[in-house]
Amino acid sequence: MEKKPSKKKFAVEAGETISDCLDRMAVEGYTPVRRMEEPVFHEVKRNGRMEPEVKEQRIVFEGKLLQ
Prior knowledge:
The protein is an alpha+beta fold and 67 residues long. The protein has one helix at 18-28, and strands at residues 7-11, 30-46, 49-65.
């Protein structure tokens, strides 16, 4: 039997709801302890320069292993 890490991050994938992500965490044996929103950037050319711009927000849950 392999040992699972005590903490693991789960990102809400494209086309997946938050509820689906939480269900996936529960199936793997983790419970959510923290929710984070991380910006996803892409570069846009403005005035002859490449500038970063926020493309979307990615929701990531940190899960703790149930014992």
